[in-house]
Amino acid sequence: MFVLEDSETGTVAGICAIEVAVGLNDPWYNYRVGTLVHALKELNVYNALPTLFLSNDHTGSSELCTLFLDPDWRKEGNGYLLSKSRFMFMAAFRDKFNDKVVAEMRGVIDEHGYSPFWQSLGKRFFSMDFSRADFLCGTGAKGIYCRTDAETSDLYPLFIPGKPRTSSVRYIPQTAPARAVLEKEGFRYRNYIDIFDGGPTLECDIDRVRAIRKSRLVEVAEGQPAQGDFPACLVANENYHYFRVVLVRADPATERLILTAAQLDALKCHAGDRVRLVRLCAEEKTA
């Protein structure tokens, strides 16, 4: 678990987390969106049906989860700092994580807790509202839902009244910024969706995540940082038990990073230590 804190006031502004490996204690389920073809050449029959296949394909993957940022703090790069702090931790302690990283995006749910996907599919197997099902999922009951006879078979949304949309996966608008952040880091939708709300699952090979791949260790010194039009950068210590990340303006190509005494204190570092440095956002390509 990671906490975004105002270092001056101690105010907690947000949280996020990493699950090192999903599905090792309780099964990790999602749907793989695919196509099932029924064809008989002699009768000139060919039907390609959109199908949901119950899957455990992401078992063992590391998961980005539990991201929440106070609305008053959704500015000045705070959301990027909170979300990408996890990549700095994963880069520092790469051996503790698996080769694939996944992140579930929230599906379409209205202000009353109504989920079109659950209403048209899940509720037909479990007679309860989405909010109740979502709560039970958080307590570990997801596997019970998936072990029902109906859920162990392939599903054909085409034949379900008010069918869930599998051709264009939808997600709640508030999720769009978080999804954009991950996609710019290399994450992609690979035809997996959540079994409750139908939200897309994004995934990326850990060593292809931009912030992990591009981060590097540099020596830190105390002083007054050079003035200039430098990009925002993430700087993290390498302390597993007292991990810290700060957001600064710096030259991402420097070999010796100069930070103020306050910044060093926030990082729990001293002059001469090595810290991890990377640009906050990918450099924009120019023609």
Question: Can you put this structure into words, describing what you see?
Answer:
This protein is α+β, with helices and mostly antiparallel strands. It has 2 domains: 2-208, no CATH class; 215-279, Beta Barrel (Barwin-like endoglucanases). 19% of the residues lie in helices and 30% in strands. The protein has 7 helices and 13 strands. An 8-stranded mixed sheet has the order 1-2-5-6-8-7-3-4. Strands 11-10-13-9-12 form a 5-stranded mixed sheet. The longest helix is centred in the N-terminal third of the chain and has 15 residues, at 78-92. The protein is elongated. The protein starts with a strand and ends in an 8-residue tail after the last strand.
Tally the beta strands. 13
Strand order of the largest sheet: 1-2-5-6-8-7-3-4
Ranges where pLDDT stays below 50 over 5 or more residues in a row are none
Mean pLDDT, all residues:
87
> Main β-sheet, in a few words?
8 strands, mixed
User: Radius of gyration, rounded?
Assistant: 22 Å
N- to C-terminal separation? 40 Å
Order of helices and strands: EEEEEHEHHHHEEHEEEEHE
